[in-house]
Specification:
single chain; 255 residues; mainly beta; Porin; twelve-stranded antiparallel barrel; 4 helices; 50% strand; globular
């Protein structure tokens, strides 16, 4: 389980227009609200790990967007380059994958530790939608792995509502996928089923976000993110579901 203060920061990350899920496309446009935002968020998530992995909580949220720098919860970034509809951001962000061994109903396991990734995000915004390419690598040598993500979102207007359906795919390197979903031979020797090795995998995902102003400074937003876990992951003894999902909804106030 995450400590409460980490859930608060996670909420801040998702509250800042859910950039990772491409929930509303706001981070891919130049119309992002500058300054500080604060509010509250309700979150329901269900990971793919064995055992009770569903989480429900309501927490405060905060974010900041400046001319060059931004803080979106667990993501700190710098707008390094921009030309016409293209933008390049350098980012450092927490990776919250993993688990405490006590939460998984299997013997012999070790904790899968959360980490910090660094990398770059290239965004193309235009009339045909928003396309985003993300390249990340583990900076704390937890998994020593890498992730590539390609995401597309198309913002739609329905009165004051901005709705953005999105599709994407992530590639997790063998080291990354195996660290979080594989079982090491030393764990098998201690009683865990296996060993089980996970190769590099592609993880498709879909998202749907909605944003609407509620007065001059208040904004309501919600987001749904769904990931289909590939067979190389679902065959792991650590996993009991074929998918992972997150649903969020909240209000924020712009200062």
């Amino acid at each position: 389980m995450l400590p409460p203060f980490l859930w608060i920061v996670v909420a801040g990350l998702l509250c800042a227009c859910c950039s990772e899920a491409f929930a509303a496309g706001e981070t891919a446009s130049r119309r992002v609200q500058r300054g500080w935002q604060a509010g509250a968020i309700a979150l329901v998530s269900n990971g793919g790990y064995a055992g009770s992995s569903r989480r429900q909580l309501v927490v405060p949220a905060a974010a900041y967007e400046g001319e060059h720098a931004f803080l979106r919860g667990l993501q700190l970034g710098w707008h390094a380059w921009q030309r016409d509809d293209w933008r390049l951001d350098l980012v450092a962000q927490a990776r919250l994958d993993g688990f405490d061994a006590d939460d998984i109903p299997l013997d012999g396991l070790r904790d899968r530790r959360r980490s910090m990734d660094v990398g770059a995000v290239l965004t193309r915004s235009g009339r045909l939608g928003n396309l985003q390419l993300t390249v990340l690598t583990d900076a704390l040598s937890r998994s020593r792995g890498q992730e590539l993500a390609l995401q597309y979102g198309y913002p739609l207007r329905f009165g004051k509502w901005r709705v953005t359906p999105g599709l994407g795919v992530r590639w997790w390197s063998p080291r990354l996928a195996d660290y979080y979903y594989g079982i090491h031979p030393s764990e098998a020797a201690n009683g865990a089923p296996g060993p089980y090795a996970v190769p590099g995998v592609l993880v498709p995902e879909a998202s749907l976000g909605a944003v609407a102003p509620m007065g001059r400074r208040w904004t309501f937003w919600s987001a749904l993110k769904y990931q289909r876990l590939p067979r190389a992951i679902t065959d792991s003894p650590l996993v009991e579901r074929s998918s992972a999902s997150t649903v969020l909804a909240g209000f924020v106030y712009a200062f």
